[in-house]
Amino acid sequence: MIRTLTFIVPEEQNGVDVRTYIRKTLGFSARILTALKYEGEMLRNGELVRSVDKLCGGDELRLTLFDEASAYEAVPAELSVLYEDEDFLVLDKPAGMPVHPSPGHDRDSVLNAAAWYFRNEANFVFRPLYRLDRDTTGALVLAKNKFSACADLEKTYTAVCEGEVPESGVIDTPIGIKPGHTLQRCAGTGDPACTKFCRLKTDGKHSLVEFHLLTGRTHQIRVHMSSIGYPVAGDDFYGGHLDRTEQQMLRCSHVQISWPALEKTVDIRADFSDFQKRLFPELFR
Hints:
Elements (H helix, E strand, L loop, with lengths): L2 E6 L9 H8 L4 H10 E5 L2 E2 L11 E6 L15 E4 L3 E6 L16 H8 L9 E2 L8 E7 L8 E11 L5 E5 L2 E3 L7 E3 L6 E9 L3 E8 L6 H8 L22 E10 L4 E6 L4 H6 L6
């Protein structure tokens, strides 16, 4: 897919070179600048321009990036769309669906379903900006081009955890692969991992908890909460019980997309479903 962005250089940027304008004023990464040089096009007032060339106030700068179409197999599947524009598609990911194809799930991933969703769009591109565990539900952002893939994201997760979780706290404990396992993680060894949490409500037996991740380790919330004795309800992989639900009660409940280059900010909320709320009515009244 081809995406072109057009900017009018403000007078106060007179004399700034193209590289500085793209990197500092627009906030694009060095990777995007390199892509513009070798996989795209930069035009100043309709003429090709180099990154070292100077800009004048009032100049029109057109930036174009070309991208190869996504090559995932298109498999019919229903997708719940929370938000869509020309740069982003935000889905409400269901439980049981991995984000990427993998052994045993090579045709039932989010990306297979997205390929079906865009099946009538020629040369369409999409890339997830983060990963959610297979059984974690909620907001998942897909970028439709290389420009939008550089947007800033702030995510909030919400979970129902077992027990009366403390009012707030920070878990700063490394996470690594559990000895003897290939998938399961454990706390206390491995890479640095930091999770901030705040209890929203509790009935003494379960707690509704909000999380912000300062790192992005696999299974981070699940491992950290299990390590302090408050596993996610329905997550028997990390010690949660299945008496109320066999569905993991962890959700990406809010994501804010900030794209300074286009002065765009989008807030998307993805609350627990009515079915999930009925499983723990004391926490959702």
